[in-house]
Design brief:
Length: 572
RNA sequence: CGGGGUGUAGCGCAGCCUGGUAGCGCACCUGCCUUGGGAGCAGGGGGCCGCUGGUUCGAAUCCAGUCACCCCGACCA
C-alpha cells in the first residue's frame, strides 16, 4: 500500500477526551474515529489490525474443530422471551420496534439464537459434539462506555457455542476452548492469565476469564504467590477464619459519636483502628427483602458473593428512608444489636470481640459489642472482597492483586438455555436429552486495544508482528531523487511479490516527519531508503521494538525482511 | 441515575469575569526554499462560538432551558 494513497492521518497532539494509552494511540494513528459515545468507525489502518486478530481467532477456532457461521444482529423478542432474558437483561439490551410494532433487540450475545438453531438442526447424539462460532458486531447499551474500544457499546466479538450430550463431553469442549484461547492470546503478543470468574448474567456453572495484565484494566484479579490459583476478585474465595472470637471482656456501652457517620470518622473519634469496628450495611434485594450485612470495618462487601448467598439477581444498598425505617436512625448509625432483620455476617466477624457498631440511634455507637452475647447472626459466610495479602484458598500462599483487561471469557453453561428453549437430541437409547452447552467469547477490538496497552513506548505503538496492520514500512527519504525513488519502488515491488504486507511511505515529506510517523504507527520493521546508504549499496533495516539497526545489501533486503517476518509470526 | 467538568476551524487551546463585527499553535492549500528524526519565509482557505429562548441598541461573552461529550461514583452508612 502506498502511503500517498492511503488514509492515515496521524495527530501530533493527543485528543483531550482520550484517557488511556491505547485509546490515545488509536486516535493519533487514525485507527478509529468516534461516531457517538462507545460507537466507532474503524479506519483503514485500524481495520487491518482488527482483521488480523479475527484471522488468528478463526484459525485457532478452526484448529479446535469449531465451525463458523453468522447470526443476525437484530433478534426478535420472542426468542428472548422464551429464555426469560427479555425481562431479566435490563437496560443494556437495546430494544427496538419494526414497522408493525413488533419487538426486537440488538443482540448483546447470542445464546438464544444459537440454541434456536441447535433445536432445529440437531436431532441425534451422532451429530455431537459440535461447536459453532461467529465473529460479529454486538451491541450492549453500557451505562458508561469508555476508553475507546476497551468498553464500547458497539463492538466486534467472537462468540462460540458448544453442544454436547453430557457433562463429560461439555468439559472436554471447555478444555479445548481454554487451550485455543491460550494460543490465540499468545499469538496476539499478550501477557495474560486465565482466572476463575463468576458466571454472572450469562448463567451457567463455572467459567474462566482471560485477563491481560495492564494498569488501565477495569477489573481486579487476584493470584496466589505460591500456586496456580488466580481469580477475579469478584469470585476470589476466602477461607473461613479459623480463630474463634475472644471471650467478651467489655460491657456493652453506648457512646455519643456526634455526626461521625463513616467508619473512618468513628474510628478516628474513638481512637481505634477501623478493624475494631464492624460495619452494618442495610441491603435490599430484588425479592423485596431487607437484610443486614456485617463486615469488619476496613473490609468491603462483595455484592456478587452476597447475591449468590441470597440467591437473588441484584442487591442494592437501602436508601436513607429505608435505613431510617428499619434501624430508627439515619444512615451511619446502623448496628446489629436489637435489629429486627435477617443478619448475615462475614466469616471474619466471627473472630472479633469487643467491637464497635452503630447504636441504631442518631449520633451514637455501641462499644464492647460481642456476637452471641449481644445479638445473633443468621449465618456467617464469605461475603467480603479479597485484598492483597489474604491467604490463598488453595494453599498456604498469599494473594496478590492485579489490574486486568478481560479479553476472553469461557463459560460452562450446562442446560440453562437448552432447557428453556427445549433443545434436545436423542441419545443412543432413543431418549430425549437436553443439550449440554458451553459458550466462549473474545472481544476482538478489546484484544487489539489490550495489545497496544502492552506494546508501546513514548514514540508510539510497537505492534506484535502477528497483528500489525503492516509488517514492514519502506521509508523513502528522497522522493525527488530519481535513482533513490527507483530503488524504493523496486524494493516495494519485491516485497509485495514476496507476500509481505508493506506500507510504502512515498510521500513528499521531510525525513523527520516520516520517521516520527513510522514510529507512531508502530510497524515492526522499517526499511529506510536514502541516498546515503544507497551509494554504498545498502539499505537500513530497523526493528521498531528495541531499535536495532542493520545495514543490508540492496539485493538481499527482501529476503532478509521475509525471513524476519516469518520468524516473528511463529507462536511463542 | 448522582456528583464534577467541557462544548469556539480537522486537532490542541485562548477570548467569556468587565457585552462592541472571532484569535493563536498544529494540520490543510499555493509559491519559494529545504531534505537522515515532526525545518524556514511569504501568501491563502476554513467557524450559525453545541442548540433554543430571554435580557440588551448590540451576546461567543450575561440569564434560563436543552442536547452532547468527558471524568468520578452508582455497594462500603
Amino acid at each position: 500500500m502506498r502511503y500517498s494513497q492511503y488514509l492515515v492521518n496521524t495527530l501530533k497532539e493527543t485528543p483531550a477526551d482520550a484517557e488511556v494509552l491505547s485509546h490515545q494511540l488509536m486516535l493519533r494513528t487514525s485507527m478509529i474515529r468516534k461516531v457517538a459515545a462507545g460507537i466507532y468507525s474503524y479506519l483503514p489502518f485500524g481495520l487491518r489490525s482488527i482483521r488480523k486478530v479475527e484471522q488468528i481467532v478463526r484459525e485457532e477456532m478452526d484448529r479446535a474443530g469449531a465451525a463458523e457461521l453468522l447470526m443476525p444482529m437484530v433478534v426478535p423478542a420472542e426468542l428472548w422471551q422464551e429464555s426469560g432474558r427479555w425481562s431479566q437483561y435490563g437496560k443494556e439490551l437495546l430494544r427496538l420496534k419494526d414497522r408493525k410494532d413488533a419487538d426486537f433487540c440488538l443482540g448483546p450475545t447470542h445464546e438464544e439464537v444459537i440454541t434456536d438453531i441447535a433445536r432445529r438442526e440437531l436431532r441425534s447424539y451422532r451429530q455431537l459434539p459440535i461447536n459453532l462460532y461467529q465473529i460479529q458486531t454486538k451491541f450492549r447499551d453500557e451505562i458508561r462506555p469508555r476508553f475507546g474500544l476497551m468498553r464500547g457499546r458497539e463492538f466486534i466479538m467472537k462468540d462460540a457455542y458448544s453442544f454436547d450430550l453430557d457433562d463429560a463431553g461439555a468439559d472436554k469442549a471447555y478444555e479445548k476452548m481454554y487451550q485455543a484461547y491460550r494460543r490465540i492470546f499468545l499469538r496476539c503478543g499478550l501477557n495474560f492469565r486465565a482466572v476463575e470468574a463468576d458466571s454472572g448474567a450469562i448463567g451457567g456453572s463455572f467459567s474462566h476469564e482471560f485477563m491481560v495484565l495492564a494498569e488501565s484494566g477495569e477489573d481486579a484479579i487476584v493470584s496466589c504467590d505460591a500456586c496456580e490459583y488466580a481469580a477475579n476478585v469478584e469470585k476470589a474465595e476466602l477461607r473461613k477464619a479459623t480463630s474463634a472470637a475472644p471471650s467478651p471482656s467489655a460491657a456493652l456501652t453506648r457512646v455519643e459519636t456526634p455526626a461521625r457517620k463513616t467508619i473512618e470518622d468513628v474510628a478516628l473519634f474513638l481512637d481505634l483502628p477501623p478493624a475494631r469496628l464492624v460495619k452494618t450495611l442495610i441491603v435490599v434485594t430484588d425479592g423485596g427483602d431487607t437484610v443486614a450485612v456485617l463486615l469488619r470495618g476496613d473490609r468491603e462487601l462483595n455484592d456478587i458473593k452476597l447475591k449468590n448467598r441470597l440467591g437473588c439477581d441484584w442487591v442494592e444498598l437501602a436508601d436513607e428512608e429505608t435505613v431510617l425505617k428499619v434501624t430508627g436512625a439515619p444512615t451511619g448509625f446502623a448496628g446489629p444489636v436489637g435489629l429486627k432483620l435477617r443478619i448475615l455476617a462475614d466469616h471474619e466477624v466471627a473472630t472479633l470481640g469487643d467491637f464497635v457498631v452503630g447504636a441504631n440511634l442518631k449520633d451514637h455507637h455501641l462499644t464492647g459489642v460481642n456476637h452471641g452475647r449481644d445479638f445473633a447472626v443468621e449465618a456467617f459466610a464469605d461475603l467480603r472482597q479479597a485484598v492483597a495479602g489474604d491467604p490463598c484458598p488453595r494453599c498456604s500462599g498469599k494473594l496478590e492483586v492485579w489490574r486486568g483487561i478481560e479479553v476472553g471469557h469461557v463459560f460452562k453453561l450446562g442446560t440453562k438455555y437448552s432447557k428453556s428453549l427445549s433443545a434436545t437430541v436423542l441419545d443412543e437409547q432413543g431418549q430425549e436429552r437436553p443439550l449440554v452447552m458451553g459458550c466462549y467469547g473474545i472481544g476482538i477490538g478489546r484484544t487489539m486495544a489490550a495489545a497496544i496497552e502492552q506494546n508501546h513506548d513514548e514514540n508510539g505503538i510497537i505492534w506484535p508482528m502477528p497483528i500489525a496492520p503492516f509488517q514492514v514500512i519502506v521509508t523513502l527519504l528522497n522522493p525527488n531523487d530519481e535513482p533513490v525513488a527507483a530503488a524504493a519502488e523496486a524494493l516495494y515491488g519485491e516485497l509485495l511479490h514476496a507476500g509481505i504486507e508493506v506500507l510504502f511511505d512515498d510521500r513528499d515529506e521531510r525525513p523527520g516527519s516520516k520517521f516520527k510517523d513510522a514510529d507512531l504507527l508502530g510497524i515492526p520493521l522499517r526499511v529506510t531508503v536514502g541516498a546515503r546508504g544507497l551509494k554504498d549499496g545498502v539499505l537500513e533495516l530497523q526493528e521498531r521494538r528495541g531499535g536495532e539497526r542493520t545495514l543490508v545489501p540492496v539485493a538481499e533486503v527482501a529476503t532478509v525482511v521475509a525471513e524476519r517476518v516469518r520468524r516473528s509470526l511463529q507462536v511463542g
